[in-house]
Amino acid sequence: MDGIVSWPGEESSITSRPARRLRTSPSVLHADVDAFYAAVEQRDKPSLRGHPVIVGGLGPRGVVATASYEARRYGVRSAMSMVEARARCPQAAFLAPRFAVYRAVSAQIMDIFAEFSALVEPLSLDEAYLDIATSAHEPISTEAAVEIARRIKEKVRAVTGLSISVGAGNSKLVAKIASDLDKPDGLRVVPAGAEADFLAPLPVTRIPGVGPATAARLHNVGVHTIGELAALSEEEAANLLGRAHGRHLWALAHGWDDRAVCADRAAKSVSVEDTFDQDIADPGRLRIVVRAMAERVVERLRAHTLSGRTISVKVRLTDFTTLTRSATLPAPTDDVRVVRRLAERLLTEVDTSSGVRLIGVGISGLTDWVQLNLFADDRGGRPTGGAGEVSTGTPGTASPMHTDPPASAVPWTPGQDVVHRRYGPGWVQGSGRGWVTVRFETRDTPVGPVRSFRDADPELHPAESP
DNA sequence: TCTGGGGTCCTAGGACCC
DNA sequence: TCTGGGGTCCTAGGACCC
After folding, report:
1. Compositional bias (Basic and acidic residues) at which positions (predicted)?
2. Where are the alpha helices (DSSP H) in A80-209?
3. Closest nucleotide to the alpha carbon of A244, via C1'
4. If pLDDT is split at 50, 70 and 90, which confidence band does A462 have?
């Protein structure tokens, strides 16, 4: 294993903080493909080589996903509007992204990374951390790290035709910054012990996690370099930037970064969103759109055999203010009818009369098992739907790869319109284990209470079909 | 003709429970 | 009747990353 040393300054930190250990050799690698999408397009279309290429949305509200280095010379950057990119570099080739191709190339690259380390943490299609200490019994020398990086670059170029940049250091932070500094086709290893001198003169904005808002706060107090951030006290950083964020960045500025390289990180949410070519104000059209997005997100959810408890709707208004509304179910679902209906309701909680430029639907609180009925959680108790409440307070701690028997002979279908003799019209949010939960809302009165009944409640009936 | 789409993490307030 | 604190869950928003 890599050599390990105690976290400097540990004595002064709060006792709840776990003991930190820093590596003593450059055994963390960060690798990413140079101008990935654009480079794939240039690779596949030789006439584009040597010329500016801009990949991104081609619609009226598109933005740049990736600009080739030729295009960057004209000031074209990721996230810039396509309109501005066209103004800066009209002679560029403007291409829509081909994600299926990028995913395939990405898989090739990740396979190559896996040949060099058993511990690969992908960050995106074109980027990953590699822990090269896992298979080594001795600390990794600078020369050994350089050699491994060189071989990875060679192999990626031979197999995919793409150039990558690799950085290595004793932490994720140092490796990542090192790979950034030498782009494109970079190879930079920060030797053990040289981390502080490497970091100190760099602008704070080099630290991943320091964006425009954080940079502005730091600049306000005269902090421009990583070394100047490190020279603050931990308390000053925490007060300036927030407790967690401030302390984290302050530690990073010292090079105190013990974050582990972690393969197989489970997804926490799934979402889809669309920006319209023109704003939509018509509630009927918005309702149709949000239903379609609910269907798309459930498709993605089910493709990964996941279920989720919390449904969110995101609305970006004409003036770009962004609102979210969410609701949490008593148990995870992957039922399109429930998600569709809930998304529709959440949309009604936002005033969209001024016009909407984007709608999104997301699902979080994911569990790794296929939902068979809404109450197939392990709380054991009966459903408790109280008036107006969606969540019951107790989270379903789902067992992995749960295999519940199907809820057979239950007459109620999630999403179904029903009428209760006392409570009026509503729709079935879920059923199972002898119970059915009804949300008493209609399109005209979209927000209403939730109540649960026995399956055979004589007062509950399917709504008349239209 | 301003500002995509997919995510992650953090904060802060209120509800609720012990 | 009054007075609390801690912990967890939920919601909404914001910063940030590629």
Report:
1. 452-466
2. 82-88, 99-116, 142-160, 172-181, 195-199
3. B10
4. confident
Which residue is nearest nucleotide B8, judged by alpha carbon to C1' distance? A268
Rounded CA–C1' distance between A418 and C17, in angstroms: 45
Q: What strand order describes the sheet that includes A64-67?
A: A64-67, A53-56, A93-95
CA-based angle A416:A308:A451, to the nearest 5?
40
**Nearest nucleotide by C1' position to the A246 CA atom:** B10
The question of whether A127 is a catalytic residue gets the answer yes
> Residues A422, A361: one domain?
yes
How many structural domains are present in chain A?
Answer: 3
Q: Is the CB of A310 under 7 A from strand C?
A: yes
Q: Residue A218's closest CA among A199, A234, A237?
A: A237
Residue A68 CB in 7 A reach of strand C:
no
Q: Is the CB of A354 under 7 A from strand C?
A: no
Q: How far is the CA of A387 from the C1' of C1 (A)?
A: 29
Boundary (domain end) residue, out of A66, A101, A136: A101
For residue A232, give the CATH number of its domain.
3.30.70.270
In DSSP terms, which residues pair with A322 in a beta bridge? Answer: A316
pLDDT one-digit tens code per residue, A127-152: 999 999 966 667 899 999 999 999 99
Active-site residue (options: A121, A127, A344, A441): A127
- Distance from CA(A339) to C1'(B17), angstroms, rounded: 30
User: pLDDT tens digits for A53-99?
Assistant: 999 999 999 999 999 999 999 999 999 999 999 999 999 999 999 99
